[in-house]
Amino acid sequence: LEIGHVALASESIAAEEAVTGVLTAVCEASGFVYGEALRGRSGRMMLCGTHYGAGPEHHAFHLASLAYEFPAKVGIPGRVWSKRRMEWHSDVTMLTDDRFLRRPLAVTAGLRGVVAMPFALGASSFVLCLFADTCLENDQVLKVLDVASGLLQRLRVSRHPQRQGVRSKLSSGPSAHSAEAERGGLV
Fold first, then answer.
1. Who's near 145: CB < 8 A, 6+ residues apart?
2. Residue 2 clears pLDDT 50, i.e. is over it
3. Which terminus of the chain is more exposed, N or C, with fewer CB under 10 A?
C-alpha cells in the first residue's frame, strides 16, 4: 500500500512539474503575465502551487489565491472544471465578485483578461487559468488557445509514447485508410 502511495505521489509531482513548463511556455509565447494551474482534489479545484508570474504583484496574487477552493460550478475554475469547457473574459475587473471570487485580488495585481481551460493528464484533472494585464481581444484568445493546445498535446504524447504510434498510424494518409478499409479494418 505504501509503495502505491509513493508511486502516486511521484506521478503527481511529475505532472505538476510538466504543467509548470507548459504554463511558462504559454504565458511567454502569448504575452500573458500570470498563469496558474488548479488541480481537482476531493471534489474541488485547488491551486497546486504551479504558477507563472511576470512580476511581484502576481506572486502576491498567487499567495493570496492559495486560500481559495473552487467546488464544481463556483468561480471560473469551478465552472470550467464542472462543464469541461473553456471560458474567457475580456476584463475580470468588470465581473461581479460572485462570478469571479478573486476579483479584488486581480484588481490589486493589475490582472484584466483571463482564459481558463480544462485538461486531463493521466488520472489528474487540471484547469489552467491564464491572465493578461490588458483587456483581451479575440485574436489574443485564439493565440493562447493555439499555443496551449499544441503544448498540452505534446505533453500528453511525451507522457504516453505508445499512443504516438497509434496516432501516426491513424494519420498516415489516405492510402493507409483505404488499405484498412479494403481489409475490413476500422478506419
1. 86, 115, 117
2. no
3. N
